[in-house]
């Protein structure tokens, strides 16, 4: 017995030793996992992907192991060559942020000089920092300074991230980094040894193919660094990425809560969506969200009575819907657009949940979503077919329905069928006028979810005529070059919506200050006074600014002459595009137009000399147009300057990088015409 | 009816105040009852109560409690409804933290520990013990609401010194700093940025300094920093017999130098590695200056990395050992200065660390000796008579000292970053060290020479070449811009610089030469339609092509704060070859300005078929009182107008 016990004890010791040795072996193995550094890598002087790069990743590898039921593991291995001081600065410190619960393990890093000598980071070099800590969350980072970093060295590091109770589904894999990468590789081992499901964006030819040990590999080679440019499409549109997919489970109660309606009927209901079949996917999505349509279209005598009263004098569909829209937008208090300080605790609760659209009508207040529901309920009560429109956000992504990904959609409007056409309405967005949507919900695919079916449409794009800015200035120019007068600006469509959103919630003095600053940003020495804002809350009317302005030394005096720019509203502006080269497409948010009318009373004793008008500047398709006409009154005392401008004609708002030189040329020509100067000559 | 309504509202407001008073501490109740004067509409908020109570306990611990209440006056003021309490994770205990948001209807929201967000103070450092506890009520706060908080911390003070600013930019109705000391201790204070001495009320060993009704300090262009504008006191406290004050409170700057020397000196290690590195670096150097330059360049190029551990125990002032910094190849400003000292020592050149305030040369004042006023470290190198540079000072005890900042990779040896020039800094050299005025380099050593030769064609096209030669601090800023941007990004910057004045620019060639003394930019360009043709008879163009002053930012009609003018020295020449068949019709008048703000001249002269423009600007760094604003504004407005004036050519 004893012997047995002894044997067992010895056995245990051996097991322990074996375990320790095994651990030691594993750790040793880990240390040996550095890949060989080639002579070519050591001696690289410039980047292979980008010869002007400050630093270039020779490889950037991520292993995503989702095979475990209890945790997700990601292993990272990055090797970077430093070419100059900027690269040195960028890689002098490495931060690995991680949230509470995540473990960063086996972090190792080293620096290899061109002569092959190696400096490794030690445990003492690595600091764990709590970046932010609240009562519920904690974000930490492991950080280390890279020893001996200098141009010419290679920096490489590896670590493991272990994330408990996590899945790789929904993860976005970046296929472009902030530095050029020679080989950017993702290894992925999906749960239950299944084939990986994913979709890609801007990653033509990138596929997960079977690799060793249950992993699939997707690779991109010679990837240039990502660089931002002004007027480029949203970052997620221009960057390449892959999103990992899989079956998802949705609780209907979550859907109900997200709309702020009573969740109790949906407590046990859920759906399962498989992204591999878009048609089925969207059908299930539609079924899930039909709960909100049913909620809206449930018959209600009170709603019907109110809708009939509101539309009593309306004859056409358009008149009826407009009357309902105006009622919902103007007569129901929109709590989503009120400053938090004016909302009581009771009202805050009401914003989270209503039991029926009647309740919104009765209370005469609700969140923006509740107001949309009331509008839908009223339209439905008058016999219109009503659906809920989900769209993507064009400021973030250009969505394609072939991609079955509900994360890219949000409820945007109520769809009402008028004749054979669907029209979309969003009275819950306080400043959006009847017949329009917010710009980022325009010109995107919308899924219209009905009670029993769904359909796709493309939302309309507002026109140059709708997004109009009218500016009128009546000025007097003095002989010493000062310009003084009154200005009126009217904003329509998206121009008004954006400004209303910006000014909303500010005190009057602050709103005035913002308008004054807008002028001063362009004309630094402008003195702006007596500012008035009209129709700020009335989305059906243009937003109007009126003010007085004085600009000392607006014109330059030269001996017998005065030189000045009659285009006051464009004075001081710089050309839209300054650089000659372009990588990304050029993107404007929406078509827009401007109409300016300026009168300038000329100083006594001066007359126009060699007066000329810049005339019309336009591309052959008239996507962009600028037409400036200058005239003088019969008594030759007052100059009349008229400017018509538009851009985005024919709905053209996205231009490939190849046409940039042409686009730049057009905008340079616009700038030139806008900077047109006139000369006044003192009469003899 | 009107009367009845007013009564109703009065009752309503009374009940709101009562509601609040029952839920907030008494100091906040008192703050809520203060009458707020009317301010300019741009003032975002008003501090109703700003108080710090400091108690030094007999066990040496310092208990600090802050009481603060702010009333929101406009939407920008919502940002004031944030509590930010700095602490050192290794040494400070945040014992209590509470905040209240009192809405204008009298309702109160209380915030406490569970609402705290604890963030790292400097995310750029590899490690920094500095952390900030934040309670953010800015989303919930509305106009008319009052946000108040108290924070109590406990720590062992590093120094028996403190600074209290009675306000920031906000108007402040009540500001108080009180210091409770153990028996047998005393406190003395110095006043800054206030017309008279702010005297404390003394009750036993309790000292209280107070100010009321302080007006706002508006942000204005070219204004000194708020630290140099807001009234403040610097306080020293110590036992009557001075026994426990050694290295905690300082009688004078020599005292500070002695303390700092004891911190720096043990970290200066010259071992074999240091000696061999110094030898290697200076192998080809002949003169003293060349040797120092070789070492300076090496240290300048080492990576800047800051690791702050043990700050509360004085480690914030202590460099890491010089041999360690050499081995790891990175360090912060004091590490670099210390390494440079060690490398110089290895070749038998003495040097001293110099602590300085980076960013505002007027901040360090002679009157208050304290290590707390510094945020940067540079080096003073003892040099012989053969070494010449504008950054050499003659020190009464230490002799000729060459000042150098090894942290700035773009300022060469013999120059000093402009933000370090002209102020006071402490040379750390035991009893020989003292507060010393830093050198100011001459205008001519910071000259920007711009020479442009262009041809104007009859259709208004301008083509030509710009050569800019920058010296001194102008070259440092050009060098920084060049080195911190990729070639592609730098080209975009230059294109943008040319485009500021006009459109249709083509940059044909860009060449950079940097011999370390002069940074030269050479640009060949074409600008289509630079001159505007009028009915084919007149050509109108602005003769200054780049770097036009434009409209001055000094547009306000009045000024509350002093005005800072930077050092500028520019000489510019433009030679225009005029288009055939055109003659000059109008030329801008020459402008010559000379005042104590500076000198400016611009003149255009035609000669045969050419037009010569000569411009010269000289302004010295200076701070002018607000009452001189009108004259300064006029000076710069005249320049701006002159630089916008066009030339008119007429067809012959």
Would you give an account of this structure?
The complex is a heterodimer of chains A (684) and B (652). Chain A has 684 residues and is of the alpha+beta class. Chain A folds into three domains: 40-242, Sandwich (Immunoglobulin-like), CATH 2.60.40.3140; 264-458, C8orf32 fold, CATH 3.10.620.30; 468-682, Jelly Rolls. Chain A is built from 14 helices and 37 strands. The longest helix of chain A is centred in the N-terminal third of the chain and has 30 residues, at 2-31. Chain A starts with a helix and ends with a strand. The termini of chain B are far apart. Mean pLDDT of chain B is 91; it is low at 1-19. Chain B is globular, with a radius of gyration of 30 Å. In chain B, the strands form nine sheets. In chain B, strands 5-4-9-2-1-11-14-13 form an eight-stranded mixed sheet, with helices on one face. The longest helix of chain B has 20 residues, at 2-21. Chain B has three domains: 2-217 and 225-245, Immunoglobulin-like (Sandwich); 253-437, C8orf32 fold; 444-651, Jelly Rolls (Sandwich). The chains are: A alpha+beta (684), B alpha+beta (652). At the A-B interface, helix 3, strand 6, strand 7, helix 13 and strand 28 of A face strand 6, strand 7, strand 16, helix 9 and strand 27 of B.
Radius of gyration of chain B: 30 Å
Query: Termini separation of chain A (Å)?
Result: 131 Å
List segments of chain A where confidence is low: pLDDT < 50 over at least 5 consecutive residues.
Answer: 1-32
Largest sheet of chain A: 8 strands, mixed
From the 3D structure, determine the CATH topology of the largest domain in chain B: Immunoglobulin-like
**Number of DSSP helical runs of chain B:** 10
Mean pLDDT of chain A: 90
Main sheet overview of chain B = 8 strands, mixed
Low-confidence stretches of chain B: 1-19
Largest interface: A-B, 71 and 80 residues
Q: Which architecture of the largest domain in chain B would the CATH scheme give at its second level?
A: Sandwich
């Amino acid at each position: 017995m004893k012997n047995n016990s002894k044997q067992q004890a010895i056995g245990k010791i051996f097991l322990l030793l074996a375990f320790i040795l095994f651990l030691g072996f594993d750790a040793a193995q880990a240390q040996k996992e550095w890949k060989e550094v080639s002579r070519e890598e050591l001696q690289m002087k410039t980047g292979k992907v980008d010869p002007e790069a400050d630093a270039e990743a020779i490889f950037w590898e991520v292993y995503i192991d989702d095979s475990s039921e209890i945790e997700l593991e990601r292993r990272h291995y990055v090797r970077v060559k430093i070419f100059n001081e900027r690269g040195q600065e960028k890689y002098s410190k490495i931060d690995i942020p991680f949230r509470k619960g995540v473990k960063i393990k086996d972090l190792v890093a080293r620096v290899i000089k061109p002569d092959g000598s190696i400096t490794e980071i030690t445990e003492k070099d690595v600091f764990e920092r709590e970046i932010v800590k609240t009562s519920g969350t904690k974000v930490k980072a492991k950080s280390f300074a890279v020893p001996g970093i200098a141009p010419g060295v290679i920096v490489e590091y590896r670590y493991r991230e272990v994330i408990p109770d996590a899945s790789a589904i929904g993860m976005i894999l970046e296929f472009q980094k902030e530095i050029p990468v020679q080989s950017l590789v993702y290894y992925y081992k999906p749960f239950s040894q299944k084939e990986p499901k994913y979709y890609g964006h801007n990653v033509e030819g990138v596929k997960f193919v079977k690799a060793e040990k249950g992993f699939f590999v997707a690779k991109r080679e010679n990837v240039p660094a990502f660089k931002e440019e002004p007027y480029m499409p949203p970052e997620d549109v221009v960057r390449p990425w892959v999103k990992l997919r899989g079956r998802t489970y949705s609780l209907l109660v979550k859907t109900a809560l997200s709309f702020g309606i009573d969740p109790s009927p949906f407590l046990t209901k859920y759906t399962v969506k498989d992204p591999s079949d878009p048609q089925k996917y969207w059908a299930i999505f539609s079924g899930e969200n039909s709960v909100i349509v049913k909620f809206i279209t449930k018959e209600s005598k009170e709603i019907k009575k109110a809708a009939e009263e509101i539309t009593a004098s309306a004859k056409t569909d358009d008149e009826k819907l407009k009357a309902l829209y105006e009622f919902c937008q103007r007569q129901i208090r929109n709590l989503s657009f009120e400053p938090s300080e004016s909302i009581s605790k009771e009202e805050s609760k009401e914003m989270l949940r209503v039991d029926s659209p009647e309740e919104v009508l009765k209370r005469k207040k609700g969140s923006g979503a509740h107001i949309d529901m009331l509008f839908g309920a009223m339209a439905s009560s008058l016999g219109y077919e009503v659906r809920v429109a989900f769209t993507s956000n064009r400021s973030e992504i250009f969505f394609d329905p072939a991609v079955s990904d509900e994360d890219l959609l949000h409820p945007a409007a109520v769809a009402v069928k008028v004749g054979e056409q669907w029209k979309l309405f969003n009275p819950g967005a306080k400043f959006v006028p009847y017949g329009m949507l917010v710009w980022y919900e325009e010109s995107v695919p919308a899924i219209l979810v009905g009670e029993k079916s769904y359909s796709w449409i493309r939302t309309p794009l507002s026109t140059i005529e709708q997004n109009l800015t009218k500016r009128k200035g009546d000025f007097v120019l003095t002989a010493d070059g000062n310009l003084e007068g009154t200005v009126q600006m009217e904003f329509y469509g998206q121009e008004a919506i954006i400004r209303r959103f910006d000014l909303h919630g500010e005190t009057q003095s602050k709103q005035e200050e913002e308008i004054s600053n807008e002028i001063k940003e362009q004309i630094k020495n402008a003195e702006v006074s007596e500012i008035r804002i009209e129709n700020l809350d009335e989305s059906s009317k243009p937003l109007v600014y009126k003010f007085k302005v004085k600009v000392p030394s607006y014109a330059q005096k030269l001996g017998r002459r005065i030189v000045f720019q009659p285009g006051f509203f464009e004075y001081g502006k710089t050309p839209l595009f300054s650089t000659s080269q372009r990588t990304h497409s050029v993107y404007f948010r929406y078509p827009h137009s401007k109409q300016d009318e300026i009168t300038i009373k000329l100083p006594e004793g001066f007359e126009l000399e060699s007066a000329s008008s810049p005339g019309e500047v336009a591309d052959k398709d008239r996507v962009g147009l600028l037409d400036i006409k200058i005239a003088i009154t019969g008594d030759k005392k007052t100059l009349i300057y008229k400017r018509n401008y538009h851009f985005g004609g024919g709905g053209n708002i996205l231009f490939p990088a190849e046409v940039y030189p042409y686009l730049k040329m057009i905008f340079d020509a616009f700038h030139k015409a806008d900077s047109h100067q006139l000369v006044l000559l003192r009469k003899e | 009816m009107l009367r009845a309504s007013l009564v109703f509202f009065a009752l309503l407001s009374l009940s709101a105040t009562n509601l609040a008073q029952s839920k907030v501490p008494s100091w906040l109740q008192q703050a809520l009852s203060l009458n707020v004067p009317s301010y300019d509409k741009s003032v975002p908020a008003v501090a109703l109560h700003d108080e710090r109570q400091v108690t030094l306990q007999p066990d040496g611990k310092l208990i600090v409690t802050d009481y603060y209440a702010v009333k929101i006056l406009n939407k920008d003021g919502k940002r004031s409804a944030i509590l930010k309490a700095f602490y050192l994770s290794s040494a400070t205990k945040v014992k209590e933290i509470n905040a209240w948001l009192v809405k204008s209807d009298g309702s109160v929201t209380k915030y406490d520990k569970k609402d705290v967000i604890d963030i790292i103070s400097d995310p750029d450092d590899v490690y920094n013990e500095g952390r900030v506890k934040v309670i953010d009520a800015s989303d919930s706060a509305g106009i008319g609401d009052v946000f108040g908080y108290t924070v109590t911390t406990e720590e062992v003070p590093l120094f028996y010194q403190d600074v209290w600013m009675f306000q920031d930019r906000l108007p402040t109705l009540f500001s108080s700093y009180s210091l409770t000391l153990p028996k047998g201790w005393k406190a003395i204070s110095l006043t800054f940025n206030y017309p008279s001495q702010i005297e404390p009320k003394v009750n036993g060993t309790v000292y209280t300094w107070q100010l009321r009704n302080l007006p706002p300090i508006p942000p204005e262009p070219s204004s000194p920093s708020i630290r140099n504008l807001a009234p403040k006191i610097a306080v020293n406290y110590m036992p009557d017999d001075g026994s426990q004050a050694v290295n905690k409170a300082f009688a004078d700057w020599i005292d500070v130098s002695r303390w700092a020397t004891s911190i720096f000196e043990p970290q200066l290690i010259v071992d074999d590695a240091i000696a061999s590195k110094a030898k290697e670096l200076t192998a080809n150097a002949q003169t003293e200056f060349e040797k120092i330059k070789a070492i300076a360049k090496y240290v300048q190029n080492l990576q800047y990395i800051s690791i702050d551990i043990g700050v509360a125990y004085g480690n914030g002032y202590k460099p890491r050992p010089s041999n360690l910094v050499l081995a790891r190849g990175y360090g912060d400003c004091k590490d670099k200065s210390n390494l440079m000292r060690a490398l110089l020592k290895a070749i038998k050149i003495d040097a001293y660390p110099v602590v300085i305030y980076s960013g505002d040369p007027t901040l360090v004042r002679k009157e208050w000796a304290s290590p707390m006023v510094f945020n940067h470290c540079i080096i003073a190198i003892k040099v012989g008579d053969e070494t010449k540079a504008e950054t050499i000072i003659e020190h009464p005890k230490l002799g000729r000292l060459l000042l150098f900042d090894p942290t700035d990779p773009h300022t060469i040896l013999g120059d000093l970053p402009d933000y370090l020039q002209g102020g006071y800094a402490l040379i750390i050299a035991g009893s020989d060290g003292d507060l010393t005025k830093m050198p100011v380099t001459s205008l001519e050593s910071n000259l920007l020479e711009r020479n442009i030769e262009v041809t104007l064609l009859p259709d208004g096209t301008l083509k030509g070449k710009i050569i800019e030669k920058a010296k001194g601090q102008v070259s440092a800023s050009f060098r920084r811009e060049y080195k911190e941007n990729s070639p592609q990004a730098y080209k975009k910057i230059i294109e943008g610089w040319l485009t500021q004045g006009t459109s249709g620019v083509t940059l044909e060639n860009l060449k950079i030469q940097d011999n370390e003394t002069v940074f030269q930019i050479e640009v060949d360009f074409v600008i289509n339609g630079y001159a505007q043709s009028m009915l084919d008879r007149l050509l109108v163009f602005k003769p200054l092509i780049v770097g036009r002053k434009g409209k001055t930012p000094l547009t306000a009609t009045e000024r509350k704060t002093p005005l800072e003018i930077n050092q500028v020295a520019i000489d510019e020449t433009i030679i225009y070859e005029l288009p055939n068949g055109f003659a000059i019709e109008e030329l801008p008048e020459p402008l010559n300005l000379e005042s104590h703000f500076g000198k400016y001249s611009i003149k255009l002269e035609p000669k045969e078929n050419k037009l010569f423009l000569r411009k010269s600007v000289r302004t010295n760094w200076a701070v002018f009182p607000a009452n001189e604003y009108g004259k300064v504004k006029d000076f710069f407005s005249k320049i701006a107008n002159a630089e916008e004036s066009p030339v008119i050519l007429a067809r012959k």
